[in-house]
């Protein structure tokens, strides 16, 4: 396949917090950029910086060497790719399509097969690293799909990520992302319970965190999410309702692969409870608020 290198045109569909930041880094890397979103207002900063606007996914894909998308869930991806004004109606055969969304692995594999029937290569590449990682261009990209497509689009990946791994055939990236989200939720649950225990025992939670960071319990969750838990600062970096969606996907992946997964089941129930307690719009670390409440602690 022909390598996608600057100044080739890249289309990016989905101008949420993550998508807009990734698209900005693609443009900074020297690619010509076309953007599309349900809300043009979210794309205005990029348009002002020199990106072209496309009203539909079909229009965005027309003339693009690579099409990227980052949208909320499986039905959104299907609509962008195969809808009435979808990517398949505008993309030329041989185009590489990168789906940065987090969706069901089985759906990703099915979408890739449908795209291949039209001569298009679909790579699933859910990401980890949060909004700051998207801004800094240091995301972890977990990629599934054909090696030829991955190699052709390598410079696009390099524009948005730091750790970029091709894991296997279509859907493999989504399986790895489910593992990532499970580990985060399980670690947040453990951190929330530990901090609640410390508070009830009369310990200073910040000193407790400091001590834990010096030992084998040190982790990204203890460094970042535990600090939010202690300070009660739950302005969303990653909303609890999105984490609930992701852990539901993890439950599905565990079921599809026949894995005994009690930690996944518990994490899923806890995130359902977090959202149902009215915390869905807060950061996923607000899991601590629920644990503290159920432990009889008042913030």
From TrEMBL:
Keyword Cell wall biogenesis/degradation assigned: no
Domain 3-hydroxyisobutyrate dehydrogenase-like NAD-binding stretches: 171-290
Membrane-traversing stretches: 12-33
Keywords: Membrane, NAD, Oxidoreductase, Transmembrane, Transmembrane helix
SUPFAM superfamilies according to UniProt: 6-phosphogluconate dehydrogenase C-terminal domain-like, NAD(P)-binding Rossmann-fold domains
InterPro entries for this protein: 6-PGluconate_DH-like_C_sf, 6PGD_dom2, 6PGDH_NADP-bd, HIBADH-like_NADP-bd, HIBADH-related, NAD(P)-bd_dom_sf
Domain 6-phosphogluconate dehydrogenase NADP-binding as annotated: residue spans: 9-168
Keyword ATP-binding set for record: no
Source species, domain of life: Bacteria
A Pfam family this chain is assigned to: NAD_binding_11
Stated name of the protein: NAD(P)-dependent oxidoreductase
Species per Swiss-Prot/TrEMBL record: Neoroseomonas terrae
Lineage: Bacteria, Pseudomonadati, Pseudomonadota, Alphaproteobacteria, Acetobacterales
